[in-house]
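Hi R.,

As promised, here are both runs. First protein below:
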Amino acid sequence: MNSQQQQEFLQATAWLRPWTRRAARFSMKTQGFLPQAIRNLPLQLVKRMLAHYQSAASSGCKSC
């Protein structure tokens, strides 16, 4: 990924940063009383969204 693609990726995913922080906070605060699958679900959703944006950026798809 060149620097232009990195900049586009960062701009496309800027809205996701607060959600990532909240998902991590939720996961850490619920450790010990929620099962791991439920506790990490918000982080898994964020991971899938980032993977989608990264694959779209690397393929050159502007409408994705």
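And here is the second one, sequence first, then its structure tokens:
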Amino acid sequence: MIQAHVVSRKMETSFAIHSVNNRRIERIEMSGHAESGEYGKDLVCAAASALVIAFVNSVEVLCGVDLAPEVRSGYVRVTVPSDASVQLLAESLVVGLEGMMQDHAKYIVVKHTLHEDL
């Protein structure tokens, strides 16, 4: 199972206009393998990987920010800067992952944690 963990911080009301849930995403971690199909044909894993790669590449090309993600087999961790454009792209990644979870809950789960709760 893929486990996506989104760590956010509550935002003050005056800045919340740019955030879907009055939060600023600080970090996104994904670990595990979906195992929804045989190796090399796991479409859930491929789709989740494609979303993360598109996010990292989009931030670099469109925002000019190198996220320098920590990547190893079955794991990626990205620290997300507070830049409004980067935050919007991070929210888009989370929306995509949550959409996948709705259709494939057996293979992917998205967990949200507020930084204040850590």
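A quick note on the second one: The CA atoms of residues 11 and 101 lie 26 Å apart. Let me know what you think.

Best,
J.
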